[in-house]
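TEACHING EXERCISE
Course module: macromolecular assemblies
Task: Read the component lines below, then compare them to the predicted structure of the full complex.
Student: A.B.
Group: 4
Components provided:
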Amino acid sequence: MMLLIFLALGLVAVTGTMVALTQQPARQAVMLSVFGLTLAILFMTVQAPDVALSQLAIGTAVVPLMIMLTIQKVGGPQ
Amino acid sequence: MTRRSRLVLFVIVAPVFAALFFLAAQGLPSFGSEFHPYGDRAVEMATGQRATANVVSSVNFDQRAIDTLGEEFILFGSVIGTIVLLRPAPEERETGLRSAGRVLPTTRLAGYLLLPVSVLVGLYVIAHGQLSPGGGFQGGVVLATGWHLLYVAGRYTALRRAASPTVLEIAESVGAAAYAAIGLAGLVIGGAFLVNFLPTGRLNDLLSGGTVPLLNGAVGVAVAAAIVLLLSGFLEQEVVLRQTEEPLAGSSISTEEPLAGSSMVADDAEQR
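Instructor-supplied answer key:
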């Protein structure tokens, strides 16, 4: 179990860094979605399924979608 | 701020933050320890007297229901704020829906197949909040996102017609108000705001936990409506509204034709 937690934590660190290092906002939104998925996995490994479910719905679907639509609207750097 | 100065700032601040964070974490109980005084009491209360198998729901909707009331109204307020911000500006006008483009038949099929599944999952998660992980918030978000599979399937007009903003606004308000009303009922019947005044039933029964399933239902309605409203605000901006050529107020009324591709469904926009 400890191993799984550390694996998930490592994944979160890696994907989180990737979000920060992604330059293009549209790609960043997609990366944010992946980051949200790894966070949900982390929450599962530390036995917080309720939070994982919220994270899965909000962090991987709703927030990236809102960012994508906003970028599309304001016409961010192409 | 240049890239270089940002890097310098990071190099100075990061070790300080790391050291302080490390020191702050020293006071926490060690990871995986057996000592959880609050957790033990919450679990005992939830599975014993309150007969709520999902302890998290018991804490959220019974033992600390007032916190969730606050969260409910934070969401309510922020969605209202977002909708106000996203309302059409004076220089924007509805140009009618731009054509959705070609949607792959497989995407359309996946959208139609997954729509009933996700609606069912959402309702299940709301209804079983007192038994298994999930509850009103999670189920409501699943319902709202599942609903938008219609958009993925290219049926944005159907989406707009089926969920009118007025109905959604009423649903959101009624859901939020129902939470407060259940709390007031507790005050009248049980003597304290949001007290669990209903019979709690037997542990692991579908109807158990007293007011927990009721509050979950209220939150489910409010959250599902709120998220659909929120996303429709963004979608509206993207799909329907276009800035006219002259954005300044007071300038002559623009008479250009709507953007190409919009005429075929323009009557849809006029129906609103």
